[in-house]
């Protein structure tokens, strides 16, 4: 698929189906956000994107307000959540680059997150372009998304 075609195909909202990371040395597979992660990634026609991923079943805070969260509650909430937003581009037929402007993980702000994109009907698979350190081991990561709506 040509870059312009892939860019057009990405436009819209996608719900997370799974996130699996495979250890390149042992083949061990982990699910960084659990067996039923929740997530939404959106690509806008204006070139903006946003991604949100969370572990299902995160505990509620004791009090109903974020600013009243205890340090442990705040840490647990953040450990089970990943969010970032910015712009995106499709420089090659199978590559999407997310230019990060905002992120729960401050180290990503100002950087780029490159993914290998594969479309199969209503499914989108975004893979890391190479192995990365994920949960203590060098792993490949694959996020599978399903088109929301339409």
Would you give an account of this structure?
The radius of gyration is 16 Å and the shape is globular. By secondary structure, it is mainly beta. The longest helix has 9 residues, at 71-79. The protein is 11% helix and 51% strand. An eight-stranded antiparallel β-barrel has the order 1-3-4-5-6-7-8-10. The mean pLDDT is 95. It has a single domain, classed as Lipocalin. Residues 11-148 form the Lipocalin-like domain. This is Lipocalin-like domain-containing protein. InterPro entries: Lipocalin-like.
- Nearest-angstrom radius of gyration? 16 Å
> How are the strands ordered across the major sheet?
1-3-4-5-6-7-8-10
- Say what the CATH topology is: Lipocalin
Number of domains: 1
CATH structural class: Mainly Beta
Order of helices and strands: HEEEEHEEEEEE
Low-pLDDT sequence parts: none
Work out the helix count: 2
Query: How many distinct beta strands?
Result: 10
Which shape, going by the Cα principal axes? globular
Distance between the ends = 21 Å
Quote the beta fraction: over 45%
Average per-residue pLDDT, rounded, comes to: 95
The largest β sheet comes out as: 8 strands, antiparallel, barrel
Question: Which key terms come to mind for this protein?
Answer:
150 residues; Lipocalin-like domain-containing protein; globular; mainly beta; 2 helices; Lipocalin; Lipocalin-like; eight-stranded antiparallel barrel; 51% strand
């Amino acid at each position: 698929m040509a870059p312009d075609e892939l860019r057009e195909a990405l436009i819209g909202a996608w719900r997370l189906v799974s996130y699996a990371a495979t250890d390149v040395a042992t083949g061990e597979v982990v699910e960084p956000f659990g067996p039923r992660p929740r997530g939404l990634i959106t690509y806008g026609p204006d070139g903006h994107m946003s991604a949100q991923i969370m572990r299902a079943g995160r505990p509620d805070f004791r009090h109903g307000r974020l600013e009243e969260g205890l340090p442990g509650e705040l840490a647990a909430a953040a450990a089970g959540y990943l969010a970032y937003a910015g712009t995106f581009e499709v420089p090659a037929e199978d590559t999407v680059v997310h230019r990060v402007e905002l992120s729960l993980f401050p180290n990503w702000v100002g950087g780029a997150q490159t993914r290998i994109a594969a479309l199969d009907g209503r499914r989108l698979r975004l893979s890391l372009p190479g192995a990365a350190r994920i949960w203590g081991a060098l792993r490949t990561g694959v996020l599978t998304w399903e088109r929301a709506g339409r």
